[in-house]
């Protein structure tokens, strides 16, 4: 969890307002109550009889402590999990593979993309990668640099970029601030978008096109397709 400094957040807000983007419209996501990311993770573990679980970004073990599986590894540089290091260092040293990987680390586009690509390299056949915080509701919730307490970062930009790849199939489950589900298989709904630099995508574009960009699926249908 990032340490928040009031003055730094204020400076970031001013910077974002003048130099990045201004947009006031807000999205409303009807996330189901009492269904969380760990429920989806456990469903996949139980259904597919998975044995090995990796979590990137554990914070206070909100998810990690709830997962029931034979072997689980949690990576966080500050707290929680089982390994105290950055995700970058973990992937450099790691020799293991995993059936299911949950990514909830630094919520910056470049780092999320790096974590996903590194995870793909150690994902077992027919495995899943899940990514948290993919459906921000406001400009402020996704702004990088961060300027508010409740924050999801620009994780969504990494998902949009990866949805253009032919051999990755991705949906975003509409629960718990958005959980993207990534599988190494033929892309069933490839995204066509005219974009050279995905880090420069604007929240305004996401606001008007989020259903298409994120391939959003409700929880019931998600369970039926997995």
What does this protein structure show overall?
By secondary structure, this protein is α/β, with parallel strands linked by helices. It has a single domain, classed as 3-Layer(aba) Sandwich (Rossmann fold). The chain is built from eight helices and seven strands, in the order ααββαβαβααββαβα. The protein has helices at residues 6-19, 37-48, 87-93, 109-120, 139-142, 155-162, 203-214, 219-225; strands at 52-56, 71-75, 98-103, 123-132, 169-173, 179-183, 216-217. Helix 4 (109-120) crosses helix 6. It is globular, with a radius of gyration of 17 Å.
Please render the helix and strand layout as text:
Blueprint: H1 6-19, H2 37-48, E1 52-56, E2 71-75, H3 87-93, E3 98-103, H4 109-120, E4 123-132, H5 139-142, H6 155-162, E5 169-173, E6 179-183, H7 203-214, E7 216-217, H8 219-225
